[in-house]
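[SOLVED] Need 3D model of a four-part complex

Original post:
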Amino acid sequence: MAGNTFNEVFKVTTFGESHGVALGCIIDGCPAGIELSEEDVQIHLNRRRPGQSEVATERDEKDKVQILSGVFEGKTTGTPIAMVVYNKDQKSKDYSNIKDLYRPAHGDYTYEAKYGHRDYRGGGRASGRETLTRVMAGAVAMKILSEKGIEIHAYTKSIKDIEAKDCDFNYIEENSVRTCCKETANDMEQLIIDSKADNNSVGGVIECQVLNLPPGLGSPVFDKLDARLAQAMMSIGSTKGFEIGSGFDSTKMFGSEHNDNITGMTDGRLEFEKNYSGGVLAGISSGSPLVFRTAFKPTSSIKREQVGITRDGQLQEFLLEGRHDPCIVPRAVPVVQAMTALVLVEEVLRAA
Amino acid sequence: MAGNTFNEVFKVTTFGESHGVALGCIIDGCPAGIELSEEDVQIHLNRRRPGQSEVATERDEKDKVQILSGVFEGKTTGTPIAMVVYNKDQKSKDYSNIKDLYRPAHGDYTYEAKYGHRDYRGGGRASGRETLTRVMAGAVAMKILSEKGIEIHAYTKSIKDIEAKDCDFNYIEENSVRTCCKETANDMEQLIIDSKADNNSVGGVIECQVLNLPPGLGSPVFDKLDARLAQAMMSIGSTKGFEIGSGFDSTKMFGSEHNDNITGMTDGRLEFEKNYSGGVLAGISSGSPLVFRTAFKPTSSIKREQVGITRDGQLQEFLLEGRHDPCIVPRAVPVVQAMTALVLVEEVLRAA
Amino acid sequence: MAGNTFNEVFKVTTFGESHGVALGCIIDGCPAGIELSEEDVQIHLNRRRPGQSEVATERDEKDKVQILSGVFEGKTTGTPIAMVVYNKDQKSKDYSNIKDLYRPAHGDYTYEAKYGHRDYRGGGRASGRETLTRVMAGAVAMKILSEKGIEIHAYTKSIKDIEAKDCDFNYIEENSVRTCCKETANDMEQLIIDSKADNNSVGGVIECQVLNLPPGLGSPVFDKLDARLAQAMMSIGSTKGFEIGSGFDSTKMFGSEHNDNITGMTDGRLEFEKNYSGGVLAGISSGSPLVFRTAFKPTSSIKREQVGITRDGQLQEFLLEGRHDPCIVPRAVPVVQAMTALVLVEEVLRAA
Amino acid sequence: MAGNTFNEVFKVTTFGESHGVALGCIIDGCPAGIELSEEDVQIHLNRRRPGQSEVATERDEKDKVQILSGVFEGKTTGTPIAMVVYNKDQKSKDYSNIKDLYRPAHGDYTYEAKYGHRDYRGGGRASGRETLTRVMAGAVAMKILSEKGIEIHAYTKSIKDIEAKDCDFNYIEENSVRTCCKETANDMEQLIIDSKADNNSVGGVIECQVLNLPPGLGSPVFDKLDARLAQAMMSIGSTKGFEIGSGFDSTKMFGSEHNDNITGMTDGRLEFEKNYSGGVLAGISSGSPLVFRTAFKPTSSIKREQVGITRDGQLQEFLLEGRHDPCIVPRAVPVVQAMTALVLVEEVLRAA
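Solution:
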């Protein structure tokens, strides 16, 4: 109810602030008998880690996960799995310039409106650093899903107005922007580098495809599979939109165009002419590939003058310090993948 | 967990099939002391009712709500409010043509994949008729919100490629398509009529604005206000996308363009140059108007030949019988409003 | 959260007041494919019905259940099952004597303290009539459990100081007090009749045994099987205590006496010398018979002068009108059984 | 759903095994602005700590709590509070004698039946060491309750057949058995010491009184305040029974005896002749003192030969090694207090 818990069966509760002691999560409801090591989790944290790509300095031994409970002799026990990452850089930086200022596009004001005060160090709980704990939990979910042959492929579909043209899943981890498209990858990367040089930022769209999902997952009415995916994606910071299958484009078509005839059924999976439904019919998976997209706005933190407002109501120009991602999209790819895994593992376990 | 419950504090559970005995809901968690009559609910059901507009026959005494519990001497008691609408037309129609056929864009196959069998009469639980119970519960939520001065304005933003140009909330209930725009209303209406004549259908976008929402509503991380709205909207049948504020357009802008400076604060509500955030910052309301859009695909049920598949795997052409909405958007407007009310009343009560 | 919902998987939400329009429930989460008719439910409602025993007038056609949804062609569909019983006797009785009076041992004052006002007609939501909806839901749970061979035997263990001496499950429904003991049944019955004649009331203990429960049901820590049973039993009105296995007597023994050696294992069910654990070890079923007891106080409503307090703080003698059960225990037996079924079906489905 | 989460508003999830890396909890839903330090928690952990009393060796610097998140500048932020205690003694003891043996009165068999394998080191998750995390969370709850003047007094009511005669709350922490009664404290203590010398164990009853609880807390039907307390108490290991107010004794009385007239009302709190209700009417607090009792069996772990069964079904005598509490009751007192605080803080926050 307080917003830090996700799922009911594979229940994940996360904690931690950007510059607090540690971040982590508890998974309550992971089945027993799953092989799990810290390395299984670390591999995904490394993909989300700041400073990983060729266009930025590599920092070493960051965000090292520790499993505190729930694993015995290399296997999950069915009891809660607690995981933690201690923050290394807790040096008492000077935050006096930001302490009494509400910045646009940040949670400064809204957290204070809700809670009365806020941890202003590096964004506190509202920092993107929070997604680290989603990736932790998602890594465990992916272990379960991959045992069932379910594959989750998330990738950069567009950076600003550069859109991917083809789609090769194997290429995703081979380029710094994590696009699926060899043809446009360099342009995307260059656009980000140029934006950074210009003290500017860009956004983009992440698409996610899930293959081999069995039919019959999801629920009617409020917990439709697409509805839960929408919540999961829109819960990631910096997102502004979600669409599945034909998405917003569908509103421009006639029914006769959008009409997506069934072409067959293989291994209990429906096949369609165009998969406009995106793999979900009436909230429940049809066995067709799941396809959905999430919109990420350009990073708000740019090194240009912006106008905020002080606690006592005075407009105030300010200039952000520090190093910020000129584009959050490449590092958000593993987060999208993790949240997708969390939604799907829930449905897989409910159906078990 | 089974998908028919929404919210935790103002907890709504719905039931009922299109051609079963009755549809209804229980609200468990409505505060005591709210004035409530059947008329308060009926007024909204009438807006959702089929056959209401000038372009269709008016049928009378439809969908009459009965309150079974939770109200005493005209006021809610704090105990569960059960409401029910009995189905009038339960005549044993012949469904033999559809019984063993899985249609595209319907839940026929997915319900069977999940549950093993299905109530095939009129779509059963997967019918759009289910939204009736959302409107019931939303009507009660709106009583609570309106006492706090919170206004929810939902309206047709576009029908196919005709987009509203101006926005007058007072005009919404004065035109059959429920657009906010006098200039385009006739064109929208005509497009729907023409589509119907052509045995075709169209979709569109519903926009919703919420005024006077206090700052500080919503939760961090997973239950961000925009994430919960996304789930609520995407849980309505026929939706394919959701966006808030600048939405998918944001991905095409530079950070410097998307940069939305604060211009002031009035009564604890932040004001922005462009309200690109759509009224939510870091998942919590800022006091600016909430603005979001939902994409509705063109109605799947058109009187043209389509290709489905039988239970035993044979492709089969079929032609739908019966009368169907050529465009679901105008009748979905009160559903969007109701779901918005359910999301917001939850946050208002959590914050109380 | 508002207290009218039980379970998470087999989620039951109930509604209704003693003298309102109707009482009923929704089960959200019942598996599909269970054969279910109104008769399956009615049979249990009849056991709970007032005026059923030889010592009271038989009233006819009372508490007739109607299934509103979730069943198609005689089988559950997996979607919500709504059931309702309309109140017959809603004649506007005169409640002016009770309207402003808080009676001892009733919820008059506490409901007002919580909700600001109350439905004072016949106890409103706090009436024992509410248990009718537990029996409805329990009837469906029992269908599922009996398919798995699980037997729930609840019976009167004692009435005041008369305690059952032997235990024959087949005898339970053959005597008006629903005891398992032929030897003491008449004495128990006579004691109740005498109490009634004396305008007095008595209480007693209901014991419940569950046979053929598989091992491994229940959860560690907070949702231990015995903890959930304790909540379920103590949620029934008029209960004052719960104990499992050796219960309160265990506190009087040395460890060496209480020591309950294992004597064997049959079909995966542990066997013990004395079953002091009552079938639960560390919160999880061991396969031994589940045995627990619930204490019911003597009915508060007796035709003798009692002292209450008025809304404006004046002590006031009052004399209750109407016909009341001189002992609630016999009619509470099916309620105990129903609540046990609800706890167990949840665990069975979680483990599925 | 997996049993390691308690409450919905003040939601506590715990983790950790007896001999794992660490134990801890997350509180998701603690209000912002509560002053909280590690010392506030440590003080209660020290009361629960093994080896604290005069009859046992004092071990130093044990179970040191660390707060990982949710507190900023000495106050809770409203975001999740994670707390952890690292296990000191993780030396790889030899558990080969217990690894394949199911002991009576332990969760060895039931955990394996549920999960397929188990962490057999010191009881794993089923160890009483788990209660440490309840005390952590309870300490935070008590901060909130004490700000409202609510006092929770838990104490040893009886050890085996020695029952407390008088009740002085101030005496509780002044004697090693934590009884409220000066007259019987020495006898209780001596009985425990003698049992230990005899390689035996004893149990007892813990009573809890809550003063200054406002009326109107709790919910009708399933979440009655006494029902939730019953679950909370019965979820503590080694408990066999729960009763409130007149408890099981009530079943022996006539209604006319049990009749508990109202004698007045002070500050909105009802007063009764005998408080037989135990402070709860129809599931909701009346403002009278809350009084309930929990039965703890004698410790199962005694240094005497017992009979267990091996994984392959052979009965086997075994002798427990190690030091065990001859009576768990004194150390369970702070656990009862903590669980009471968790139940009450939930109701206080729901009512806020």
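Edit: Residues 5-351 of chain C form a domain with the Chorismate synthase, AroC fold fold (CATH 3.60.150.10).
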